[in-house]
Q: What sequence folds into this?
């Protein structure tokens, strides 16, 4: 049904080589940042123009360098915060990821170039008060708050939902995660 305005959106970005790639491995070693910083995830409009809405990386890699091979992938979690999707008008958009390294760290033998992901269509829709859709939005907001360690905020939105939907098992599951992380088993 799409992503509602003001609803956070998370995505896993995986970098992988073709299994039949002739190159043994590829080193991603940007000169002044980590390999994760060389990845840009954004929403573009139907004409391919940037909207200015970019995803943020969740967490930091253990190493600034990574190596890809047909048997080794790399990846991470990116997210669009609630305010990012709130700024978009309802309509069709495209999610696009770009890996660009213009210069490799000296001596690394690192790859340089630019590659794009496949385009993924995303529909931004107005917020709905339909109970099932509202529950989905609350769960998304709670999971987003957990990513930032805003546990009290996550608990509050979940508790409000659970006061109306006592049998919502996904909400109880996420509420249990919040309680466990807060040290309240």
A:
């Amino acid at each position: 049904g799409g992503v509602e305005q003001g609803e956070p959106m998370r995505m896993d970005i995986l970098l992988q080589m073709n299994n039949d790639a002739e190159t043994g491995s590829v080193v991603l070693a940007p000169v002044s940042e980590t390999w994760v910083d060389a990845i840009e995830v954004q929403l573009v409009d139907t004409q391919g123009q940037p909207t200015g809405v970019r995803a943020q990386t969740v967490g930091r890699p253990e190493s600034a360098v990574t190596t890809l091979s047909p048997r080794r992938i790399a990846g991470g979690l990116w997210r669009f915060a609630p305010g990012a999707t709130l700024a978009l008008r309802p309509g069709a958009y495209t999610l696009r990821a770009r890996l660009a390294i213009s210069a490799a760290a000296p001596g690394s033998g690192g790859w340089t170039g630019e590659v794009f992901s496949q385009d993924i269509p995303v529909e931004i829709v107005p917020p709905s008060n339909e109970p099932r859709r509202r529950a989905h939005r609350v769960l998304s907001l709670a999971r987003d708050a957990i990513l930032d360690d805003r546990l009290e905020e996550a608990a509050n939105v979940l508790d409000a939902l659970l006061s109306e939907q006592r049998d919502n098992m996904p909400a109880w599951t996420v509420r249990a995660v919040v309680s466990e992380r807060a040290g309240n088993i």
User: Anything to note?
Assistant: The longest helix spans residues 131-147. The CA atoms of residues 151 and 178 lie 6 Å apart.
